[in-house]
């Protein structure tokens, strides 16, 4: 027996069976024991019934991505076993329903025909039979321990002890049974698991009590049935300092509150709605000098959401809206109106699989060009792309400073992987966040002439801004081209001056925003191998680089955090030193790489791409980079890991 410094746990079952709740409890329990975590959530777009799973990576040090390996798989159903057993590595284990062993793979109704056809080829190539029992038998040959559990018997005993006649009222607790058996096999401190259960069900003491009882029964059952047979163990660590445990969309929501956002509009869409729903659940919050509040409004559609946010921003509130691809498409006319009227709104854009409805609950990183160019005509906007949960937090706050300082829309690009990933951190230093409201005027002296030039021509293009309702300030806002007062004007000279005024602000932002807010650089400054990427691949890239550096390779990683306006001079300087330039993106065409080529004339030598709807892992990025460094890689590699 030995304690592991890192461990990978996966739980899966039908959607609606409590996978997320079990994962939440598991993560909290590990966090209480001093471990760092990174969790990935995958789920189908149907409401209930199809396969979902959660993959947790647990480590003694801070981690930033998932890997391909699974050490322990807890399966609620036969489909989870079939889909994921090949990810369990030698020395690992599988917890499964005893009754599922005789299930024929082709009889699992939720497995799509495409999967069955492909899986049949695998079975035939290995000479494996077509039942779950045959599949786990093959796994045992790879030194994988199998733990069949009579979940139904456990649930019946639990119902009897609780005095519940209908078994259906306790079947949902199968999730807690599975995670408790997992912790029992790991010989983990049961009191920490019970603490996590009580925290998750803090508003429902009776449910918490029932689940704690289920946990105790399952823990004891596993000890009696399986003993000390699992080689991996998790022991409580002795650590100092507080930690936080956040989902990406929670980090965005909290960052907005810290950044002074007080109006959030939205129309429900996956995965963006999670952020607004979290804000709705926490609309009243504590501040150092008293209580605060944010108004969250669900509108009739995304067009109304963006326009309502513009109205709130014009009235002086820091306002935002959140959406995903199809919703952003609807917002574009309102975005153009905001661009024309120099409205400081923030749009949080959660990318997902596309085009059209595409993969509504799966990952995508395909909308970079759309975010930069969306809208009829030309108008300035800043596009900010976060690369991890911590960046999501600080960028969400910072976006409002950019919006108000330069009086333009800011699009904060995130993606499904970050929205639904869970990560642990040391407590953030919120003192880093400073509020900059830009050129705001409230003195009545500026309005004494009786005419307030809301769109006054200035050297920077930024005009003095007064809020709607400011005494003495009469304002005009229109979708048409306008003069300094806001009145409609179609005169050629005025048109030229207004276009140049608006677009010049982007050049000012390009010059003023510090480079360390627009680019991150990792690795060796003089490395011949330079990686370029943006967004959620960041964590996998950094970890893969560390592994390759241990093998003697020299690499650098340029993370582009502000793709628009692009810091092209600095990018060209860094890429100009590299002999191998490697683009890593989660889209088909390598959108950032092509934008860099347009702006700098520098082309990438290699592309590592992924577009199957699942995020990149450290494992597959490491393997792809290693092929390039060893000289046996094609110019374009497409990654395919994920289920």
CATH superfamily membership of the largest domain? Pyruvate-ferredoxin oxidoreductase, PFOR, domain III
- Biggest sheet, strands in spatial order? 7-6-5-2-4-3-18-9
CATH class of the largest domain: Alpha Beta
Give the N-to-C terminal Cα separation.
31 Å
Shape descriptor: globular
Helices and strands: which structural class?
A: alpha/beta
Question: Looking at CATH, which topology of the largest domain would you report?
Answer: Pyruvate-ferredoxin Oxidoreductase, domain 3
Task: Please tally the β strands and state the result.
Answer: 24
Write the layout of secondary structure elements.
Blueprint: E1 2-3, E2 6-14, H1 19-32, E3 36-43, E4 51-59, E5 70-75, H2 78-84, E6 88-97, H3 113-126, H4 132-141, E7 145-149, H5 151-162, H6 174-185, H7 190-200, H8 205-226, E8 232-233, E9 243-247, H9 248-258, E10 261-266, H10 273-281, E11 284-287, E12 290-293, E13 295-298, H11 302-314, E14 318-324, H12 325-340, E15 346-351, H13 368-373, E16 382-385, H14 389-406, E17 410-415, H15 416-419, E18 421-426, H16 492-512, E19 519-523, E20 529-533, H17 538-550, E21 555-560, H18 568-575, E22 580-585, H19 591-600, E23 606-610, H20 618-630, E24 636-639
Parallel strand pairs: 1-8, 2-5, 5-6, 6-7, 10-13, 10-14, 14-15, 15-17, 16-17, 20-21, 20-22, 22-23, 23-24
Antiparallel strand pairs: 2-4, 3-4, 3-18, 9-18, 11-12, 19-21
Helix pairs in contact: 1-6, 1-7, 5-8, 6-8, 7-8, 9-10, 9-14, 11-12, 17-20
């Amino acid at each position: 027996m030995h304690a592991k410094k890192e461990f990978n746990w996966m739980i899966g079952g039908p959607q609606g069976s409590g996978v997320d709740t079990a994962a939440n409890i598991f993560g909290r329990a590990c966090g209480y024991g001093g471990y760092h975590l990174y969790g990935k959530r995958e789920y189908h777009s149907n409401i209930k019934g199809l396969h979902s799973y959660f993959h947790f990576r647990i480590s003694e040090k801070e981690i930033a991505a998932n890997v391909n390996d699974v050490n322990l798989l807890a399966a609620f159903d036969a489909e989870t076993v079939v889909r994921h057993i090949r990810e369990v590595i030698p020395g690992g284990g599988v917890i499964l329903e005893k009754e599922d062993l005789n299930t024929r793979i082709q009889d699992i109704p939720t497995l799509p025909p495409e999967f069955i056809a492909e899986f049949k080829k695998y079975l035939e190539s290995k000479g494996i039979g077509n039942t779950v029992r045959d599949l786990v038998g093959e796994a045992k040959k790879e030194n994988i321990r199998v733990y069949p559990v009579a979940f139904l018997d456990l649930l019946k005993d639990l119902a009897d002890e609780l005095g519940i006649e209908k078994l259906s009222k306790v079947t949902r607790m199968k999730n807690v049974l599975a995670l408790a058996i997992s912790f029992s096999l790991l010989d983990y401190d049961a009191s920490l698991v019970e603490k996590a259960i009580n925290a998750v069900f803090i508003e429902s003491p009776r449910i918490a009590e029932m689940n704690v009882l289920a946990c105790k029964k399952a823990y004891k059952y596993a000890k009696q049935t399986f003993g000390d047979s699992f080689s991996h163990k998790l022991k409580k660590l002795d650590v100092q300092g507080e930690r936080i445990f956040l989902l990406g969309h929670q980090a965005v929501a909290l960052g907005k509150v810290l950044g002074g956002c007080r109006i959030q509009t939205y129309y429900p869409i996956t995965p963006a709605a999670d952020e607004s729903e979290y804000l709705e659940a926490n609309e009243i919050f504590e501040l150092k000098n008293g209580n605060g509040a944010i108004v969250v409004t669900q509108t009739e559609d995304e067009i109304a959401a963006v326009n309502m946010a513009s109205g709130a921003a014009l009235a002086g509130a820091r306002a935002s809206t959140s959406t995903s691809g199809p919703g952003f498409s609807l917002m574009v006319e309102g975005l153009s109106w905001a661009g024309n009227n120099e409205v400081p709104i923030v749009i949080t854009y959660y990318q997902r699989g596309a085009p059209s409805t595409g993969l509504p609950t799966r990952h995508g990183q395909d909308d970079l060009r759309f975010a930069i160019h969306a809208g009829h005509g030309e108008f300035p906007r800043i596009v900010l792309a976060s690369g991890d949960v911590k960046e999501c937090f600080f960028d969400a706050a910072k976006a409002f400073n950019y919006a108000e300082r330069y009086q333009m829309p800011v699009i904060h690009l995130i993606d499904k992987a970050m929205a639904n990933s869970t990560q642990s951190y040391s407590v953030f230093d919120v003192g880093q966040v400073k509020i900059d409201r830009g050129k705001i005027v409230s003195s009545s002296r500026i309005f004494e002439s009786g005419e307030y030039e809301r769109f006054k021509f200035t050297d920077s293009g930024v005009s003095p801004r007064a809020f709607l309702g400011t005494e003495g300030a009469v304002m005009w806002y229109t979708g048409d081209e306008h003069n300094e007062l806001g009145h409609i004007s179609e005169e050629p000279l005025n048109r030229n001056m207004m276009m140049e005024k608006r677009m010049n602000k982007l050049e000012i932002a390009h010059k003023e925003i510090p480079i360390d807010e627009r680019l991150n650089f990792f690795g060796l400054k003089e490395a011949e191998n330079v990686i370029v990427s943006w967004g959620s691949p960041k964590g996998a890239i950094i970890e893969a680089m560390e592994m390759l550096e241990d093998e003697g390779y020299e690499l650098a990683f340029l993370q582009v955090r502000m793709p628009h306006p692009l810091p092209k001079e600095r990018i060209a300087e860094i890429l100009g030193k590299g002999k191998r330039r490697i683009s890593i993106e989660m889209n088909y065409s390598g959108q950032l790489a092509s934008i860099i080529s347009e702006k700098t004339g520098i082309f990438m030598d290699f592309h590592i791409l992924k577009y199957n709807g699942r995020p990149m892992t450290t494992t597959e990025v490491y393997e792809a980079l290693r092929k390039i460094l060893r000289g046996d890689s094609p110019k374009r590699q497409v990654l395919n890991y994920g289920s």
